[in-house]
Amino acid sequence: MYSTIDLHSHSTISDGILPAVELIAHAASHGVKILALTDHDDTRGLGIARATAEPLGLQLINGVEISVTWKRRTLHIVGLKIDPDYAPLKHGLEAIRLGRHTRAEHMAISLSKTGIHGSLEGAYQFAKEGIISRTHFARFLVEKGYAKDTKSVFKKYLVKGKPGFHEHEWASLEQAVTWIKDSGGIPVIAHPGRYELGRTNMLLLIEEFRALGGKALEVVTGSHTPPMYQEYAKYAKMFGLLASQGSDYHGKGSSYMEMGYLPPLPVGCIPVWHDWPEAKILIESGQSPMDDMTLNACASAIASLGNTASSGENSANSSTSNILEKTIKKLESFNWRNTL
Ligand SMILES: [Zn+2]
Ligand SMILES: [Zn+2]
Question: How far away, in angstroms, is 164 Cα from ligand 1 center?
Fold first, then answer.
């Protein structure tokens, strides 16, 4: 059974292939009921996405994916349920976009030194309406025949030590988490398994993120393998963080995962949407976003918090909405810091 909640996706406002309108239609036709649009460093797609989603019966979550430099590495922090009009967030994203343009100029200079000319203009042609990214340079290089597809581009170009790479300083972890949190949103570490940090740095990152007010880890994502789902579920549990999930869909041929095929969160995870009215609406309309496995995951997470009141009733005997109600009440009364 697949989940109907997808909390990570991209449109042409960043490096996705589909414009927001088509992305929403694609999600709805693939059975997604709650979708977060999380374009890189830009929220300009949210208005049109919301207007498109409503008539299709799809609930849109305002999202963004912020580029961060942490210990000289680039990380992505997703913000869910953000207020895109919150001034510090808006200005912060504007500054990052300006930085993206400067980086692109440096990347083009670096590529021209190896005889590849016109890459800045070429990349901007792919960027169309939104931000400029390495993916747009990659698409230009593929078009010009320097690599067979966008994945293989990154073996020869645009990464550390290769032509087209330019070291760039993005937002700090503290800035990203604070902008998201103060705008009323939920900070999430996107696809942690992709950073190849090693255990010590991963623990340091998660602890720093949590101390700054970070709330969730992406556990199930298009760029994690099934063993990674388990690994990051453990990290989430260890640090008292919620678990998020998303396909990170960028469009056909440009994603690890098609929309609508997200497996449920591993047992023991507490879903980031556990107290969202959007999830409640689905339950009340009989389209539960939580399958039995996820409900059981919630129940066992609650049990592991030392709360035994729910142990006499299980998902087989109670309605989905009863279980969710109880889960939410218990979570609300629990102080996460007690787990550390
Ligand atoms: Zn990302
Ligand atoms: Zn992404």
Answer: 20
Domain housing 111? 90-156
Task: Name the residue among 248, 16, 53, 244 with its Cα closest to residue 133.
Answer: 16
Q: Name, in order, each residue with C-beta under 8 angstroms of 307's C-beta and a sequence gap of 6 or more.
A: 330, 334
CA torsion sign, 225 to 274 to 306 to 309?
A: negative
- Residue 24 and residue 147 in one domain: no
How many independent structural domains does the chain possess? Answer: 2
- CA of 330 from ligand 1 middle (Å) equals 32
* Closest by CA position to 219, among listed 331, 162, 150, 294: 294
Q: Which residues pair with 221 in a beta bridge?
A: 246
Closest ligand to Cα 255: 2
Give the predicted TM-score (pTM) of the model. 0.81
CATH number of residue 108's parent domain: 1.10.150.650
pLDDT of residue 305 exceeding 80? no
Instruction: Read off φ and ψ for residue 254, nearest 5 degrees.
Output: -125, 15
Structure token digits, residue 4: 């109907």
Unique residue bearing structure tokens 């709330």: 215
Residue 304: half-sphere exposure toward Cβ, Cα within 13 Å: 16
36 with 183, same domain: the answer is yes
Q: Which of 61, 64, 62 is nearest to 278 (CA)?
A: 61
Spacing, Cα 321 to ligand 1 middle (Å): 33
pLDDT tens digits, one per residue of 128-162: 777 899 999 999 999 999 999 888 899 999 999 99
